[in-house]
Structures are given as C-alpha cells and as structure tokens.
Specification:
Blueprint lengths: L9 E6 L4 H11 L4 E8 L6 H9 L4 E5 L5 H12 L7 E4 L20 H26 L5 E6 L15 H24 L3 E7 L23 H14 L7 E4 L8
Parallel strand pairs: 1-2, 1-4, 2-3, 4-5, 5-6, 6-7
Helix pairs in contact: 1-6, 3-4, 4-5
Bound molecules: NADP nicotinamide-adenine-dinucleotide phosphate.
The site of NADP nicotinamide-adenine-dinucleotide phosphate has 28 residues, from helix 1.
Length: 256
C-alpha cells in the first residue's frame, strides 16, 4: 500500500517539525521529487529559526505553521491554515514530545511526583496527538492510502518496564499508545485506507535525549538522519493489516 509511490503527489504534515526528529523528517521529505507540499508546525519562536529559514529556501514546497499542541483552538487554527492549500494529506507524523525542560525533569522517585508536571506530560505527549487525530481525519480520508504515525517511545511499553522511574514520561507514552490504538479502530471504520501506528525511534541525538546519553551503549545513539531513514523504511513497508501496531525502529513490533 506504499503511499511513497512516485506517481502520488505527496501532501505531508509534520506536527512538531521545528527541531530534532521532526525537523529531520522535514529535511528528508523535501528531497522527494513527488512531494507536492509539506506543512510543518512549530511551537516556540526560539526553536523555529531553522524551519523558518528552510521555508524561505523552499517557499513553493514548505509551509511553517504555528501550533501550540496544548490548546485545541491553536490546533484548529493551524489545521485551518493547512486547509487553505489542501483538503488531502497522505502522511501525518506527530513528533511533539517533552521529557525535560529547565526545572521540569523526569521523576526518579515517587517523592518527585508533581501534579502539574504529570498534567504537562499528558497534555504534550498524549492528548495533543489524539486532538490532531480528531481534527485531521477528513484530510486523511480519501481514495488513496494514508498514514497517521505518532512518535512514541519504548519506555511507554507497560510490559517492557523493568527499570521504573520516569513516571510521567512513561505513563504519557503509554497513554499515547492507547489513544493511537483506539484511534486506529475508529479510523478503520471512518477512514479505512488510513493506517495508524505508534513508532519507537530508538535513542536519537536530540535536545530531548542530550542529558541522558552517557549510558547509551555504543552504536545505539542514532543520528536524526539514521532514525528518520529507519522510520521511513517502516512506513514504506506498512500494510493495511498493520493498523494499530506499535513498531520499533528496526521494524519489529513492541509489546504494549
Ligand atoms: N530523542 C530520543 O532519543 C527519543 C527517544 C524516544 C522517543 N522520542 C520521541 O520522539 C519525539 C521527538 O522528540 P525529539 O527527540 O525530536 O525532541 P525535540 O527536539 O525536543 O522535539 C520535541 C518537539 O516537540 C515540540 N513541542 C514541545 N512542546 C510543544 C507544545 N506545547 N506545542 C507544540 N509543540 C511542542 C517542540 O517544539 P518547541 O521546541 O518549539 O517547543 C519540538 O519541536 C518525541 O515524542 C519524543 O518523546 C525521542
């Protein structure tokens, strides 16, 4: 069912396209000769510089769109911007996520649990993705195949949790996985040519992983280019029967 066949003029939305893995997806898809248009959202102006300058270089192909994923009105406004140019999307990738920011750090112990921090994890890592799924369905429902992929994390696997810690991040990724699985079931009825998946990118060299990279085994810290190539390969191989699955970077499925 590959959506990447050369005769399809691709319309792609990267949510969280201003840094890390999301920005690398933008670089990657801009090289496709059959790309019709790429929409990439950014949040803070500070981290949007690279995306904005890319959009000046590729003004016919790339539209940067402001979106705060914690405000549904901002999501609706961003999607309205997309709708001015297209009614159809072939691929939507949710790359937004938070692990740490200034005082906001993953909890090592119950003593560090904070109500506000937990809420923030869920708002950014889980709820934003399902709000996108809610508003973007009409764009994905068309005569061709389409993909809705959310970048999750293996630490969100409940079955695979042997180490503990990182309560909020783990729980918010587990919630993201359940929201994607549930979305996949509704989409199979309302948009049967769309495949919904959660993807674990592997530890990737971005701001998000920077403080935690020293214990990563040699060869297991991927560049953003490597990660994006691996995740694109998974998406190229997707079949309708893969709807609702959780894939790791090497193409194996992960336990929920
Ligand atoms: N890097 C890894 O090792 C790794 C491993 C497993 C999973 N992941 C997952 O991969 C995804 C991408 O992460 P990354 O490593 O590329 O990290 P990153 O460079 O920090 O990217 C995170 C993105 O989320 C955006 N974001 C944060 N809060 C937002 C909000 N309220 N509204 C809209 N956008 C917001 C950020 O935009 P601003 O900077 O403008 O806020 C940024 O574009 C995340 O879901 C992460 O959990 C990463």
């Amino acid at each position: 069912m590959s959506i990447f066949k050369s005769h399809i003029p691709l319309e792609i939305l990267i949510v969280g396209g201003s840094s890390g893995i999301g920005l690398e997806f933008v670089h990657h898809f801009l090289q496709y000769p059959n790309l019709n248009h790429l929409y990439a959202t950014f949040h803070s102006q500070d981290s949007a510089n690279k995306l904005i300058s890319l959009s000046q270089k590729y003004s016919q192909k790339l539209s940067p769109i402001s979106m705060d994923i914690t405000a549904e009105k901002s999501i609706e406004k961003g999607i309205k911007e997309v709708s001015k140019k297209t009614e159809t999307l072939h691929l939507v990738i949710y790359c937004v996520g938070i692990l740490h920011k200034d005082e906001f750090q993953p909890e090592k112990s119950l003593k560090q649990i904070s109500e506000q921090q937990l809420l923030t994890y869920f708002q950014i890592n889980s709820i934003g993705a399902v709000l996108i799924a809610k508003h973007i369905l009409p764009f994905l429902r068309h005569s061709e195949h389409s993909i809705f992929a959310a970048i999750s994390a293996k630490v969100g696997s409940i079955e695979d949790n042997f180490l503990g810690g990182w309560y909020g991040y783990r729980a918010s990724k587990a919630a993201l996985n359940m929201l994607m699985k549930t979305t996949s079931i509704e989409y199979s009825r309302r948009s049967p040519k769309t495949v919904v998946v959660a993807l674990h990118p592997g530890t990737t060299d971005t701001e998000l992983s920077k403080p935690f990279q020293k214990n990563v085994p040699q060869g297991k810290l991927f560049s953003t280019t490597k990660t994006v190539n691996q995740l694109v390969q998974i998406m190229k191989d997707l079949k309708i029967g893969d709807n609702g699955k959780f894939f790791s970077w090497d193409g194996t499925t992960l336990p929920w």
